[in-house]
Structure formats: structure tokens, C-alpha cells
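Next comes this protein:
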Amino acid sequence: MKSLPVFLALTGRPVILTGKGEAADAKRRLLERAGARIVGEEDGEARIAIISDGDEAVVARLRGRGVLVNATDRPDLCDFTLPAIVDRDPVLIAIGTGGASAGLAKALRQRLEVLLPARLGALAEALFGARAAIRVRWPDAGDRRRAIDAGLAPGGMIDPLKEDVAGSVSAWLAQSGDPVASRLERIRLLSGDPDDLTLRVARLLGAADRVYHGAGIPGAILDRVRADAVRIVAEGAPENPGAGLSLWLELG
């Protein structure tokens, strides 16, 4: 990963936009959708700029003032890039290639547009509205995360790929019993290449509470593990792995 994806809150904030023509018009529409206040190069408050014509002199002047710059079609001059966006407000999915290929990002966006229900945002709003009830239902943070993961999993009560699933949040909260029993999953990897991961294994890596593994497991595989999962180097599968979902990874 060569850059850190972030979502900037731009409502009411000044953003410099320079250049004319189709590219500038497209960037203007994008900034207006985000609520930005579009200003010229001379604005001294703006800390972000989009140079739609890639003018190197303008880029140099703004960088000299500490402004972060995006120069259209000039990735070598960019401090940040603009992703392709799938908008299911308040859910946003951003797809970037670091400036390598806008066409590839667009193609991936089009694929995702077909997959994601139009009312996905309604589920996000329903979950936001239920935050207090969710905390009451599952006071422990670990139990709460596992319950949410189970509900949102494929086929779960609030599977986000189901149409009009927002109305199922109340029923999901009212369910009885533990949503996920503590268990250890033993995974024998086909290779050290993350492209060889099965869909099931990829989902387990993204949901695990902790991952036990030998010293020979490649970093490219471990990068697919949930960011806040505990990683433990071990010589063999543990007898008492702990609460929640634990994985034991081995090669071949």
C-alpha cells in the first residue's frame, strides 16, 4: 500500500480548482457534491487543490504554500489522487489505482454498482440509529463486533447485499442466543500467494479475532487479516485459542 485512503469532510471548506474545460467541469461537479466551497489559486485558507490542466507552475506555487495538490493526468505531481466512487449515501466506496489507470478504477466501480443494492445507505442509517440498542444487547465490545459480523455475513439477517434489509435490524437485535460460538479454524494455505486464497478463507481472515501462524507464513497473506486481529507466531495450533474466532494458518 503506497497511500492511505481517507474521506475528507469538505462541507463549507475552500478547495482550489484551476483550469478550464471538460476535466475542470467534472472536478467541479464532484467538489460540489461533496459540499466544498470552490475558490481560486489566490485563496489563502485553502489547503487542498485540484489542478485540472496539470499546470506544473501552478502546482509548484501551491506546493510551496503547503497546499496538497491533485494534478489531473499527472500522477508524478499528485499529493493525492481522486478515486472512482460508488455512492450509496452515507456509504461510500472509493476505488483508486494511485493514478496508474483511471479506466481500471472506472471498470471496477461499474462492476460494484451492479452488485450493491440502491438502498444500502438505508441499512447504514438503521445501524447508526440502533447504536445504543446494540450496545445494550451486546455490552462486551468483542461480542458486539462478532454479532455485527455474523449479522452482516452472507445469508445473515442483515446481509447488506439483500434488498431492503434495513427493516430487519430490529429482528436481528431481538434474536436470542450467541451469534458466534468460539472456535478454532485450521487453514492449510494452497500457497503464499494471496490470489490463491479461497473466498471462504478470505472471509475468515477478515473476521478473525486472532491468527496463530508459523514463522514461514508470508506477509502478503497476513496483510489480508483483519487489521486489529491479534497475530501470534506459534509452532502449532493452540489448545486454548481464546474467545471468538481463532485461526491456525499453515502452508501446503
Remarks:
- The CA atoms of residues 44 and 65 lie 9 Å apart.
- The first strand starts at residue 14 and ends at 18.
- The longest helix spans residues 102-115.
